[in-house]
Amino acid sequence: MPDQATSLERIPTVIVGDHDELGCLVACRIAELMRTRGRAGRRTVLGLATGSTPIGVYRELIRMHREEGLSFAQVVTFNLDEYYPMDPGSVHSYHRFMWENLFSLLDIAPDNVHMLRGDVRREQVGEECRRYEDAIRAAGGIDLQLLGIGRTGHIGFNEPGSGIESRTRLITLDLVTRKDAAADFFGEDSVPREAVTMGVGTILEAREIVILATGEHKAHIVSRAVEGDVDHEVAATFLQRHAATTFYIDTAAGARLTRVATPWLLGPVEWTPQRTVNAVTWLSHETEKAILKLTQHDYAERVEDEAVE
Ligand code: GLP
Fold first, then answer.
1. For a pocket test of ligand 1, which of 98, 154, 217, 248 has the largest count of ligand atoms closer than 8 A to its C-beta?
2. Which residues are catalytic?
3. Residue nearest ligand 1's atom 7 by CA
4. Does residue 2 surpass a pLDDT of 50?
5. 246 exposed, middle or buried (CB, 10 Å; 0-12, 13-18, 19+)?
6. Which run of H or of E encompasses 77?
7. 29, 122, 191, 215: which sits with the fewest CB atoms below 10 Å from its CB?
8. CA 208 to centroid of chain Cα atoms
9. Which of 10, 7, 5 is nearest to 242 (CA)?
10. What is the atom index within ligand 1 of the atom nearest the CA of 52?
11. pLDDT (tens digit, 9 = 90+) per residue, 119-165?
12. Cα–Cα distance between 24 and 30 in angstroms, integer?
């Protein structure tokens, strides 16, 4: 990919064909890190995420464990978040999600698994969050943090308004997030109103960050996070300030990136019939003119000039 084609992208972004391919690619990166550190006699500290997006990565890690002998005996994990209040045994808990979808299928030592507790009393939440931060530090910090992204642009549960220096804490969930979780809870009213989450600042301390998104419903927030300005209204934009973050997305989630949606804005393109249709439709939207009212001047101004240089 030539530099100019991605020049609007402020987070290095890799677009893959589908969810399975994404899972393999990211699992390979994690396995490589584990092996490199293992050879040096060092443990690997992974920051892990829940949600449907990382499932493919977890499936592939489990396969590597079973078929290739990839061992997790020297791996320490810290999960991003948990609903509050939440019993760890509940079917809705992230504890249960992680044990069912990953930990119980690996040779990881239970003592090496760390998850924020959603079942402590409210007055103990602050202490629980401090204890978590201390445990991350005591483990030597996170080597690789895996992230998904919510439609509000949250990472972990850092909803709009979360600052770049925010730490592990209790947070009120955004309405959009609660709507997205409604199906899992058999109705929006049953979705907890709060959660405990690592802060943006906590996440940014990871040495490497891998953020994932799949599906067209994520296309808007992906382009906002990758190409938009850094803004506390969209926590994922803070990843632009991190030196070793890679965004892995599928083609559907990448649909609104400039290099996919309007590549003629980045430089010369090959004008296939489909691309021509896309460009004309786009120009009509941009100029708020019907297609048949578009003039040579409109084309020259907005499309050709950009493309010909
Ligand atoms: C929840 C989690 C996030 C996750 C997001 C997206 O809000 N707290 O960590 O990234 O959901 O979930 P999904 O991958 O299912 O779209």
1. 154
2. 159
3. 150
4. no
5. middle
6. strand 75-79
7. 122
8. 13
9. 10
10. 15
11. 999 999 999 999 999 999 999 999 999 999 999 999 999 999 999 99
12. 10
